[in-house]
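job 3f2a | input accepted
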Amino acid sequence: GKMPRKDEDKFYGRVDFEQVIYLQILKIGNLSSRIFNTPETDEWQKNALNYYYAVRMLEALLYPYLDKKYYEAVEKIERKAKEKYEKRQDGGSEEYATENLYLDVKDTIEVTNEIIRLISERMKKLGLLIPKQTWFEYGKVDVDAEHI
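job 3f2a | predicted structure (148 res):
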């Protein structure tokens, strides 16, 4: 038989969990603000994907609390982005390569922002509050025009 857990263990368990979540959110905020920090356009998508995967990591941490509706919503968001991407590839000509790259990055950011919005709604319901300052400043989709 398993040892019954003492109440304070449960309490500490929750605190640890919230701290892990909080640290992951800080990491997400940090990654999201650095996407266009370099003039190297080929770094942008890598940075955007780091942001995306950090959000998917947060999702994995919260897995027990996310419902089927959540995953269906995410799937829909990703499907729409994939369609946009494929449409761009079809009409793709070399001269638009940089613009297309920028649009790919922009889509990655927007998808990630939408996923994080869904996650934050679920977290609020759980009473896991996200520190205000780390929310939605982010994944700014704009970049100085001179970079494009």
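job 3f2a | Residues 7-138 form one domain.
job 3f2a | closed
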